[in-house]
Amino acid sequence: MVDSLKKPGFEELRPGVKAPARETILTPRFYTTDFDEMARMDVSVNEDELRAILEEFRVDYNRNHFIRNEDFDQSWDSINGDTRKLFVEFLERSCTAEFSGFLLYKEMGRRLKHTSPLVAECFTLMSRDEARHAGFLNKALSDFNLSLDLGFLTKSRSYTFFKPKFIFYATYLSEKIGYWRYILIYQHLSAHPEDRIYPIFKFFENWCQDENRHGDFFDAIMKAQPNILNDWKARLWSRFFLLSVFATMYLNDIQRADFYKSLGLDARDYDIRVIQKTNETAGRVFPLVLNVDHPDFFRLLDDSTVHNSKLAAIATSGAPKLLQFFQKLPHIAGIAGNLLRLYLMKPIDTAHLEGSVR
To answer: Which residues on adjacent β-strands are paired with residue 32?
Structure first.
């Protein structure tokens, strides 16, 4: 078997251990926060809901779910060429994102143990879930003769500092968009099992319920801190984080459209559905959401993907770095201009929605 079939074009730290993907603005990020500020949070306003969520975490519905079965006991050399490369990238990105959540939640659980034991236990149990997800994905990578050194990843990645309220915005959306991504893939492959190229997708139905419960926890935390949702700044930040999450996913997925094609999905149609569903879900807690049905919304995102593909081509052109810098400028400006127009697009006020905290 030729090496290009086993490990197509991946740099390795050592044999069988994949070097982490280069960090860019679109790669999964690792976060840290002001743990002292978080320790001072008063969640008594919404304590009953948080205790109900904690009980769900304690039940641990997926305790026995992430166990590999006989479906994995075969060669995966049939997944080859570009599809293999894109699939490995999908597993790596997913594993990195889950591991990032594990590190953040574990540290929060540790830091809040004495000041807010209710919240601390929720974080600790969510870190348990994220560890399972990351481990399951890393084991899947081994079917392609690769793995990630998660210890190395912990030490080598840069960490982005967000204040607690921004952590809540970002992680809430990350968990909820993760739910919709997983459930829509699961539903599609249940209807079209011939497109299920690898058995990990059979696990997505239960898996996405972990994401949903985690999102519900951050929903409850934000409702316990009304100042996070009630002022004019919350309206601006809601728009910012919604747009950041949606644009990042869209640019990444359109760039990897062939991966979704291998699953029988059109990447653009899939992303539109994920964005619409996540936007609708966010309306239950955020004071406003984006007008994703505006005729210019996806047109501007599509134009950004064209600029993004040209940026990727320039980066791999082999041209001198200085020349690349000047070649990239108009495309960076094009994406920035599109994102600004999207941000300034009139949003949809959700104050009328039942269950909103205003």
So the answer is: 161
